[in-house]
């Protein structure tokens, strides 16, 4: 049980133990469920947008999408990340270049999703 790399080097499992003690199983469940719900919310926005297209169905906490507007994906992503309000990464899915949004921060809220949707619309419309 304790020979896995995650648990055998310099107390790497200690933060997990402390967060379990602080939040418990229900707290962890809420964090995971919230991340999934927020990914679904962002995926629904992408699905309805005329500027973006989902590259894959939203499963768990990852949203993979591409820019369909007359805008280069790499340039769009650079402008988005340069705002400092959000950070997304480039990806390739089924040989198509796209953007990967991963919902992993336990403090992310539905209001943050609205902010990101507004932000990416502004970037697309300012082109």
Task: Put the structure in a nutshell.
This protein is α+β, with helices and mostly antiparallel strands.
Specify the biggest β-sheet: 4 strands, antiparallel
State the end-to-end CA separation: 54 Å
Q: Which strand order do you get reading across the main beta sheet? A: 1-2-4-3
Class from secondary-structure proportions = alpha+beta
CATH topology: Aspartate Aminotransferase, domain 1
| Strand/helix succession | HHEEHEEH
Rg over CA atoms: 17 Å
Detailed description of the structure:
A four-stranded antiparallel β-sheet has the order 1-2-4-3. The protein has 127 residues and is of the alpha+beta class. The protein has helices spanning 5-8, 14-48, 73-82, 110-125; strands spanning 52-54, 62-67, 89-93, 96-102. 19% of the residues are buried. Helices cover 51% and strands 17% of the residues. It has a single domain (30-125), classed as Aspartate Aminotransferase, domain 1. It contains four helices and four strands. The model has no long low-confidence stretch (mean pLDDT 88). It is elongated and about 50 Å long. Helix 2 (14-48) packs across helix 4 (110-125).
């Amino acid at each position: 049980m304790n020979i896995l790399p995650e648990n055998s080097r310099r107390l790497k499992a200690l933060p997990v133990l402390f967060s379990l003690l602080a939040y418990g199983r229900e707290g962890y469940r809420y964090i995971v469920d919230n991340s999934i719900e927020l990914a679904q919310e962002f995926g629904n926005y992408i699905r309805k947008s005329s500027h973006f297209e989902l590259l894959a169905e939203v499963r768990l906490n990852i949203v993979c999408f591409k820019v369909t507007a007359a805008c280069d994906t790499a340039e769009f992503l650079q402008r988005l990340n340069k705002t400092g309000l959000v950070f997304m990464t480039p990806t390739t899915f089924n040989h198509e270049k796209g953007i990967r949004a991963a919902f992993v921060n336990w403090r992310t809220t539905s209001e943050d999703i609205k902010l990101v949707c507004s932000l990416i619309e502004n970037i697309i419309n300012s082109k």
